[in-house]
Structures are given as C-alpha cells and as structure tokens.
Amino acid sequence: MNSISTFRLHQSHFQNLVIINKNQRIGFMEGSDRIKDGF
To answer: What's the superkingdom here (predicted)?
Structure first.
C-alpha cells in the first residue's frame, strides 16, 4: 500500500517535470523567434 502511494507520487511528479520541460522549450522557441524578428 505504501509503496503504491509513493509510486503514484513519483509518477505525478515526473509528469509535472515533463510538462514544465515542454513549456520551457516552447517558451524558448517563441523567444528565439522574437529575437529573429527583432533583428
């Protein structure tokens, strides 16, 4: 029981990290596109 709950906790934490990673990549791509447009 305890191991299952800790596994679920790690799983949701991992999913949050993946979502944050995707958002950072999208933000970086948008930022580099804006820099290109600026120059």
So the answer is: Bacteria
First to last CA, the chain: 58
pLDDT tens, residue by residue, 15-32? 888 888 888 887 777 777
Question: CA-CA distance, 15 to 23, in Å (whole number)?
Answer: 12
Distances in Å between the alpha carbon of 14 and those of 6, 11, 19, 21, 26?
Answer: 12, 5, 9, 10, 19
Q: What are 1-10's pLDDT values in tens digits?
A: 678 888 888 8
